[in-house]
Write a structure and sequence with these properties.
This protein is α/β, with parallel strands linked by helices and 144 residues long. It has 6 helices and 5 strands; from the N terminus they run H-E-H-E-H-E-H-E-H-E-H. The strands form 2 sheets. A 3-stranded parallel beta sheet has the order 3-4-5, sandwiched between helices. A two-stranded parallel sheet has the order 1-2. Helix 1 packs across helix 2 and helix 1 crosses helix 6. The longest helix is centred in the last third of the chain and has 14 residues. It is globular. The two termini are 25 Å apart.
């Protein structure tokens, strides 16, 4: 999580554009996303990145409306990637889950929408891949 915050903050700062990072928990049934999102928010805030954690969105229509008003997505959930790509939004999907079916679904989306998408394997979220990740994030932020 720390590495992701460092790379995302650096990409935002080098884009020379003001960004607001909204962190959206995507599991409406439970709050299992919140601890990770709150940790990421603290790490971004320390680096002077404006960030908000949206605690809960009321329903699916509100989620779609939120997605329509957003410029670029960094997703860790398949359905978030699916919606953002369906709305033709630039999307970076981070694959945390080693479950093969999940990886296959993300790869299928990529084959269909690769001009608007990139995939990052979670094992590459380390400073060892700093330049590669900065290039990916930077290209998506500059495209807006």
């Amino acid at each position: 999580m720390k590495e992701l915050s460092i790379i995302l903050a650096e990409a935002i700062k080098t884009s020379k554009t003001k960004w607001l990072v909204n962190l959206l928990p995507f599991c409406l049934q439970c709050d299992c996303d919140l601890p990770s999102l709150k940790k990421l928010a603290v790490l971004l805030d320390i680096q002077n990145i404006k960030v908000e954690v949206l605690l809960k969105i009321a329903n699916e229509e509100a989620i779609i409306s939120f997605f329509k008003g957003t410029d670029v997505f960094v997703n860790v959930r398949y359905h978030a990637s699916l919606i953002s790509l369906r709305l033709n939004k630039p999307t970076i999907s981070i694959v945390w889950d080693d479950y093969p079916h999940y990886r296959n679904k993300i790869n299928y989306l990529y084959r269909d929408k690769k001009e608007n998408m990139d995939i990052i394997d979670s094992d590459k979220l380390s400073l060892n891949y700093h330049d590669e990740l900065l290039s990916i994030f930077g290209s998506f932020l500059r495209a807006i």
